[in-house]
Specification:
With 304 residues, the protein is an alpha/beta fold. The chain has a single domain, classed as TIM Barrel (Alpha-Beta Barrel). Helix content is 34%, strand content 17%. The protein is globular, with a radius of gyration of 18 Å. It binds zinc ion (2 copies).
Length: 304
């Protein structure tokens, strides 16, 4: 079992760094999508600020039309509690988000949860989160993966070729579960990566091919663009999104991509999601933000 202190999101705590933009990058020509953000946290996860209403008000102020809440799910055994709400806080979270669905007529609010893909808790995700608490959707997000029967966290570690393969396999299992409306930051392996390798290439292809086969969108996560950058053998880069991952993804015409802020502060409710959109457009990726809310609605109507 992974030690709790090995599973911190240490870089989430670093000061925000301004991303210098060139004048051409500041153009909003690429911003052709309506603003739909499906990835939002609250103070309950202990590394975000603000409550549900703060994000709704910020969304209205920033012309966001669809706001999906996806705070980090509690797990029934209380593991990894330093970066998520407790099980006791779950009813209050669900109630607050459901209340917001009627309190803000100008805004479509979706109730979701960001889930670590822990195989023994898939029934909890299905029966408790989607069933009992009537959440609209789940996000698969793998901050740790199973390697030879042990959990290994991405933060504070390096990653071997063998572990990259295990990380990819864990994604395939998550995608194949059919539980998740999309997979958050599938290129989070950029955190422990110390330079691109053939194994990183293979890992990327395995994840993308599973997503294409199951028609599960993969997320370009704008939160990574707001974090500190790192220098490795490839030069200065973002921890994630990884450009090379998305270049590979662009080879697959049928891949669906969603771009999200992954807001941990109300003022980031849209944040620099336009930068993620620009990356998608440069690489001609198929962004499905505009139809994802309707897909989620149809899927729920079918299952309930
Ligand atoms: Zn978070
Ligand atoms: Zn998140």
């Amino acid at each position: 079992m992974l030690r709790p202190d090995a599973y911190n999101y240490e870089d989430l705590m670093t000061p925000r760094q301004a991303m210098p933009l060139t004048p051409s990058e500041m153009s909003t020509d690429y911003n052709i999508l309506s603003r739909k953000n499906y990835h939002t946290h609250t103070r309950l996860c202990k590394h975000a600020s603000g409550w549900v209403d703060d994000y709704c008000q910020a969304a209205l102020a920033q012309n966001v039309s669809v706001l999906g809440f996806s705070d980090h799910t509690p797990l029934p055994d209380g593991r990894w509690l330093s970066v998520r709400m407790t099980l006791e806080e779950l009813p209050g979270y669900a109630a607050a988000v459901h209340q917001a669905q009627t309190a803000y007529p100008g805004l479509t609010v979706l109730a979701g949860m960001e889930c670590e893909h822990v195989p023994e808790y898939l029934d909890f995700f299905r029966e408790t989160l989607l069933g009992q608490f009537e959440l609209d959707y789940l996000v698969g997000a793998l901050h740790a993966y199973l390697y030879r029967g042990e959990w290994v966290g991405l933060y504070g570690n390096t990653i071997t070729d063998d572990q990259l393969a295990a990380y990819a396999d864990h994604h395939v299992a998550a995608i194949n579960s059919g539980l998740y409306a999309f997979i958050a930051h599938p290129d989070l392996f950029g955190v422990p990566l110390r330079g691109w390798t053939p194994a990183a290439d293979a890992c990327s292809r395995t994840i993308v091919e599973a997503a294409v086969a199951c028609q599960v969108p993969l997320e370009i996560n704008a939160y990574g663009l707001r974090k500190k950058m790192v220098v490795d053998s490839d030069g200065c880069r973002h921890l994630y999104p990884l450009r090379r991952f998305w270049e590979i993804a662009a080879e697959y015409d049928d891949l669906q991509v969603v771009v999200n802020s992954d807001a941990h502060l109300p003022e980031d409710v849209w944040g620099n999601t336009d930068d993620a959109i620009r990356l998608a457009q440069e690489l001609r990726l198929r962004v499905v933000n505009d139809s994802l809310d309707e897909d989620i609605r149809i899927r729920n109507a079918y299952h309930r």
